[in-house]
Amino acid sequence: MIRFEHVTKRYPDGTTAVEDLSFEVAEGELVTLVGPSGCGKTTTMKMVNRLIEPTSGRILLGGEDIAAADPVELRRRIGYVIQQVGLFPHKTVLENTATVPQLIGTPKAKARARAAELLDLVGLDPAVYGGRYPEQLSGGQRQRVGVARALAADPPVLLMDEPFGAVDPVVRERLQNEFLTLQKTVRKTILLVTHDLEEAIRLGDRIAVYGTGTIEQFARPAAVLGAPATDYVASFVGADRGLKRLAVTAVAEADLTDADAKAPAPAASVELGATLREALAALLQEDSGRIGVTDPASGALIGVLTPEGVHRALRRAQLQEV
Ligand SMILES: Nc1ncnc2c1ncn2[C@@H]1O[C@H](COP(=O)(O)OP(=O)(O)O)[C@@H](O)[C@H]1O
Ligand SMILES: [Mg+2]
Question: Is residue 166's pLDDT more than 80?
């Protein structure tokens, strides 16, 4: 859907922001770009909607070279969410959300009805929040309006630059989870920039780990954590990458021990497919050192997870990734 081919950007002052970037984002995929400040993430993103023009190389959107597209028309197909949100202070929440559809000629009543639906979708009751002004919202609520506004024109592609960066960690995690749920419904093709590795891991179908102006590794989160491609990536993901992998590995049937008819049934349980992180959290609370694992559909006990099972699951996932 979005394809970078040997893209380099050199600014007029001689700074090479990105060099020879080649990667592809598939339709409906969420790719996170992660790396330290100044490594070229924002530059990469802004080249997709032509706020910045590459020095060399080309970018294809749906197979079409964007250099040949009209920038205004191009931006109608691409929603853009930034950290500062950029809501119009003198417009209400509903008006802000309806901005783009109205700009492209959607009748006012229809644009507003759609805006109300989207506010609902991002968890803001339009009857309560629609008439408020941005300054009457919390940071997290403003962020949601930013997401609703970017979705309002129903663009196939979303660019998100540190979209949850301006809110505190608790709100951020809630927004991230809501956003993942939303993405399951809307299935946009998304490029999301963050400097936060945990966020990149939690949200990305695949992650591009940036060094300085180049991508050091482009892979699924579990692969980046389980098999860092370079020393740089290994140090970026940190010595505790084994712990981080708990959040991106699911409990599978092969990791379980048969329920022992003689032992008492474990008091706590998680569903098959839960993350190892959730499972380990439950396990650590259990005196018996075992938890049940149930079938998500029927609720029936499938087997028992022990600390050895968690270890087995991590090894299994690692072997699958390399
Ligand atoms: N307009 C500009 N002129 C010159 N250098 C720039 C400009 N914008 C960004 N840069 C430089 O390009 C590099 C990449 O910047 P940027 O893409 O904003 O990084 P990131 O988003 O990863 O923090 C940095 O060294 C930055 O200072
Ligand atoms: Mg940036």
Answer: no
The answer on pLDDT for 111 being more than 60 is: yes
Residue type, 295: D
pLDDT of residue 38 exceeding 60, the answer is yes
pLDDT at 83 over 90: no
Q: Probe ligand 1: pick from 11, 162, 192, 195, max atoms within 8 Å of CB?
A: 11
The whole-number average pLDDT for the span 62-89 is: 88
Q: Say how far apart CA 149 and CA 267 lie, in whole Å.
A: 45
pTM of the model: 0.85
- Give the residue, by CA position, lying nearest to ligand 1 atom 3: 11
The Cα–Cα gap between 25 and 197 comes to: 19
Distance CA 261, CA 224 (A): 40
Give the pairing of strands 206-210 and 215-219.
antiparallel
Domains in the chain: boundaries: 2-245, 250-321
The domain 250-321: what is its CATH number? 3.10.580.10
Q: How far is CA 220 from the centre of its chain?
A: 12
Q: What CATH homologous superfamily does 2-245 map to?
A: P-loop containing nucleotide triphosphate hydrolases (3.40.50.300)
43, 55, 193, 197, best to mutate for ligand 1 pocket (most atoms within 8 Å of CB): 43
For the chain, the average pLDDT equals 90
